[in-house]
């Protein structure tokens, strides 16, 4: 796996973990449903500080589980991302998406 790919995975994981934590902070039960978390998993995620979250994100595996069966939703998402600036990093795109929540 290339260094660039690994770095992208780390950035994605970090953005994903921040999103999960943000949603769980607002409503832990909603976060548990949306991200298929147990009470223990959600509580553990909420207990991690930024440094621990960053360490957790630095794995070579993508931490998100996708359930992308809805063709219409996928099409809309793809079209909206194509309109974004292609030079924007994955992390800055994820931060932008999180900021609207």
From TrEMBL:
Family annotation (Gene3D superfamilies): Flagellar transcriptional activator FlhD
Pfam families tied to this protein: FlhD
Task performed by this protein: Functions in complex with FlhC as a master transcriptional regulator that regulates transcription of several flagellar and non-flagellar operons by binding to their promoter region. Activates expression of class 2 flagellar genes, including fliA, which is a flagellum-specific sigma factor that turns on the class 3 genes. Also regulates genes whose products function in a variety of physiological pathways.
Name recorded for this polypeptide: Flagellar transcriptional regulator FlhD
InterPro entries: Flagellar_FlhD, FlhD_sf
Keyword NAD: no
GO molecular function term, any single one: DNA binding
Assigned keywords, A-Z: Activator, Bacterial flagellum biogenesis, Cytoplasm, Disulfide bond, DNA-binding, Transcription, Transcription regulation
GO annotation terms (biological process): bacterial-type flagellum assembly; positive regulation of DNA-templated transcription
Organism the protein comes from: Neopusillimonas maritima
């Amino acid at each position: 796996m290339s260094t660039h790919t690994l770095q992208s995975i780390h950035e994605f994981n970090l953005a994903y973990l921040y999103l999960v934590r943000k949603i769980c902070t607002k409503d832990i039960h909603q976060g548990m449903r949306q991200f298929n978390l147990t009470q223990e998993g959600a509580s553990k995620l909420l207990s991690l500080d930024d440094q621990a979250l960053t360490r957790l994100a630095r794995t070579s595996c993508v931490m998100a589980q996708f359930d992308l069966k809805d063709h219409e939703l996928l099409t809309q998402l793809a079209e909206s991302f194509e309109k974004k600036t292609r030079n924007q990093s994955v992390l800055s795109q994820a931060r932008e998406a999180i900021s609207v929540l």
